[in-house]
Design brief:
Elements: E1 3-4, H1 7-27, E2 33-39, H2 43-59, E3 62-68, H3 74-86, E4 92-95, H4 105-111, H5 123-131, H6 139-150, E5 159-163, H7 170-179, E6 183-187, H8 194-198, E7 203-206, E8 224-227, E9 231-232, E10 238-239, H9 244-247, E11 253-254, H10 261-280
Parallel strand pairs: 1-11, 2-3, 2-4, 5-6, 5-7, 7-8, 8-11
Antiparallel strand pairs: 9-10
The chain binds nicotinamide-adenine-dinucleotide (NAD).
The site of nicotinamide-adenine-dinucleotide (NAD) has 23 residues, from helix 10.
Length: about 280
């Protein structure tokens, strides 16, 4: 039986800390502000944006939403980002991805001021993460680290395996584990002997995007298993990248889906926005 690390519990703790720090900032006359841009009407993006707005209200941030039509041009979007970059009262700017196909995501990420880049996607922030000297950490991997810390799990010297090498999750996740002295292996779609590599992991992070991909025979007895995936199973039910029913009895610690890494991502976004406001103060 594994210990279940609850993202609901850990994220509530993070949000409570952010709320308290926000009150202190407000007492000094600084009200943290987050601008969220959404282009088009992707239903999943809509849910994420609504959750981010709710979290802002809960911790006491000013939040502004810019819901732009799918036909918005690159120029219009960049103009809006430029205006928000110049606003004193906006500390964080987030453009919900994916964007409609005609828009250049890379240019949009590059246009957001690195000082307001609370997703930590800007190349200058990515570089800072690489050298371990950063203001903002990417929200999902930072959320996973927060869960590891909360559970009192030591990373130093452990065999850590990350499945997935995306810029948003896999790569920065590996870097954060490395910063804590883990011995890190990154696996991806071309990895041979995946089962062998994964089953040597003390700490296994799954960020694949495939429902129930990680089976019991890929997991070492007593491993820590962190599941980043958000997928639908064959019955349309929300599930992770880990086959929870199979893996849970073998793991020492595991995160569930839903109620695991998902809620952490938004809590860490609040933490980054607070940090940006503290920098302004
Ligand atoms: P992605 O599609 O960009 O990357 C998936 C990675 O998995 C790739 O690097 C690929 O090489 C690897 N992969 C694919 N098939 C594989 C295989 N057979 N064996 C080994 N590796 C394989 O996805 P992403 O953006 O990194 O997201 C991963 C998952 O995490 C998705 O389910 C996504 O919805 C979820 N996600 C959750 C949160 C959250 O807040 N919890 C945030 C971001 C992403």
């Amino acid at each position: 039986m594994a210990v279940i690390i609850s993202g609901k519990e850990v994220s509530a703790k993070v949000r409570a800390e952010v709320k308290e720090a926000c009150e202190q900032l407000k007492a000094k006359g600084v009200n943290p502000g987050l601008a969220v841009i959404i282009v088009g009407d992707d239903p999943a993006s809509r849910v994420y944006v609504n959750n981010k707005k709710k979290a802002c209200a809960e911790v006491g941030f000013l939040s502004e939403e810019y819901a732009l039509p799918a036909e918005t041009t690159q120029e219009e979007l960049l103009e809006l980002i430029d205006r928000l970059n110049k606003r004193e009262d906006i500390d964080g700017i987030l453009c919900q991805l994916p964007l409609p196909k005609h828009l250049d995501e890379k240019a949009v990420i590059n246009a957001i001021s690195p000082l307001k880049d609370v997703d930590a996607f800007h190349p200058s922030n990515v570089g800072k993460i690489m050298i371990g000297d950063y203001d903002f950490l990417p929200c999902t991997p930072a959320g996973v680290m927060e869960m590891i810390h909360f559970a009192g799990i030591e990373v130093s010297g452990k065999n850590c395996v990350v499945i997935g090498r995306s810029n948003i999750v896999g790569k920065p996740m590996a870097m954060l584990l490395l910063h804590e002295n883990g011995t890190v292996t990154i696996c991806h779609s071309r990895t041979k002997n995946l089962k062998e590599v994964c089953s040597a992991a003390d700490i296994l992070v799954a960020a694949v995007g495939k429902p129930k991909f990680v089976k019991a025979d890929m997991v070492k007895e007593g491993a820590v298993v962190l599941d980043v995936g958000i997928n639908r199973d064959e019955n349309g039910k929300l599930c992770g990248d880990v086959d929870f029913a199979e893996v849970e009895p073998k793991a020492a610690y595991i995160t569930p889906v839903p109620g695991g890494v998902g809620p952490m991502t938004i809590a860490m976004l609040m933490k980054n926005t607070l940090k940006a406001a503290q920098n302004r103060a």
